Amino acid sequence: MPDYRIALIPGDGIGPEVIDAAWPVVAKAAAANDITFATTRLPYSADHFLATGETLPDHAFEQLRDESDAIIIGALGDPRVPDNEHARDILLGLRFKLDLYINFRPVRLWHERLTPLKHAPRIDLVIFRENTEGQYTGRGRSEGVGSPTEEHVSEEVNTRSGVERILRAAFEWAQREGKRRITMSDKSNAIPFQRIWGELFEEIGAGFPNLEREHRYVDALAMEMVRDPGRFEVIVTNNLYGDILSDLGAGLVGGLGLAASANLHPGRPGLFEPVHGSAPPLAGKDVANPMAAVLTGALMLRALGHPRPAGSLEQAVTTVIAGGPTTEDIGGASGTTEVARALEEAVGS
Ligand code: NAD
Ligand code: IPM
Ligand code: MN
Question: Is the pTM of this model over 0.90?
Fold first, then answer.
């Protein structure tokens, strides 16, 4: 009997390439620690949607919910589906319907030369992005379309329980990991309905007296992350700001080819994905960096309770970044498959 049932949804664009390249690396690190997987590959993607009209059918959702220990997604998004319907249904659909309220996005500088900053500081922070509400619920309306009063309203939802649970998750993780500082970010100076974030941050934070609490408006935080990223340890914020800040963070440490994320609800199976999208211009060329997908596998292993193989994947990435081969996005000239082969060799060596 394999230890874990893993569902793979390679998706669109570079998604299948990075999953095919990265998964054997992840499986090797796991096997070296006597961990085995039964993997199921699911076809949900733009191709599947265009051929069948299906995004994520109910039976597949139920299978993912009831019969998997973790889900891995490559990337979703395709110019042939201009309103992104399938990606919203599959990616956002799974986050929402599985109630994976924590989007855990580490930002770590694996090698000094990868930062565009002149003086490379130590960068090692985690963004806790709220993942089930904010601007992402799809609530809103269009009125008077075609008339002079045409209006499109997108609602931002901040529930007490939703804000409370992401803040608590960030505080608890920070305490467990021995962090000293936690930064909450909102835009409550312009959006008064966001004040609940500040109130609950103080209320919950009072229970964690060893953690220094600080607040930054998101515009100022974006600036400070560029000027002094080394001072941040844990950033907790809403869905949209977390989305934007995680790409900013990725930009500080080598780009999207290295950024991994985990969608979590403690006690339930998680959904793991690189932060990057389907990168249509790179698709099919064997140029995408598979490291984000490998590091995503490390997040999965850690969430399943296996820090050793997770650490050996991170070590393999560090080794290969330092000595090559690497893909173009981080300064090399090698292909996806060649980098993956080097990572596989580095695992456990
Ligand atoms: P993108 O992440 O696909 O690409 C942004 C930039 O990063 C591009 O320059 C791309 O070449 C580069 N890049 C991304 N991944 C890389 C990798 N592994 N190696 C090297 N370079 C890499 O974002 P986008 O162009 O804004 O979006 C493309 C599509 O992907 C859209 O349909 C979007 O909605 C979708 N998307 C999906 C996800 C997801 O599935 N999780 C995330 C973001 C965007
Ligand atoms: C991400 C992506 C998604 C998001 C898109 C594709 C809907 O940008 O995972 O960061 O906004 O959450
Ligand atoms: Mn994003």
Answer: yes
Q: How many CA atoms lie within 13 Å of 203's alpha carbon, on the beta-carbon side?
A: 11
Contact present, 70 and 269 (Cβ < 8 Å):
yes
Query: Which CATH class for the 1-101+257-349 domain?
Result: alpha beta
Tell me the best of 103, 244, 276, 285 to mutate to test the pocket of ligand 1, counting ligand atoms within 8 Å of each CB and taking the most. 276
Catalytic residue list contains 83: no
Tell me how far apart the alpha carbons of residues 321 and 111 are, in angstroms, rounded to a whole number.
Answer: 7
pLDDT per residue as tens digits for the range 42-67 = 999 999 999 999 999 999 999 999 99
Determine if the peptide bond prior to 325 is cis (ω within 30°).
yes
Q: Is 34 a catalytic residue?
A: no
- End-to-end alpha-carbon separation of the chain, Å? 27
**CA neighbor of 236 nearest in space, from 129, 136, 132, 159:** 129
Asked if 1-101+257-349 and 116-138+153-252 have one fold, the answer is no
- Would the CB of 250 count as within 6 Å of ligand 2? no
266: tokens are: 């403690």
CA 136 to centroid of ligand 2, rounded, Å: 10
Radius of gyration of the chain (CA): 20
**Domain 116-138+153-252 has what CATH class?**
alpha beta
Please tell me the distance from the alpha carbon of residue 321 to that of residue 339, in angstroms, as a whole number: 10
Per-domain residue ranges of the chain: 1-101+257-349, 116-138+153-252
Q: Is 187 a catalytic residue?
A: yes
Distance in Å, CA 233 to ligand 2 centroid: 23
Answer yes or no: is the C-beta of 243 below 6 A from any ligand 2 atom.
Answer: yes
Q: Is 228 a catalytic residue?
A: no
The answer on pLDDT for 142 being more than 70 is yes
Alpha-carbon span 104 to 140, nearest angstrom: 27
Q: What is the DSSP letter of 328?
A: G
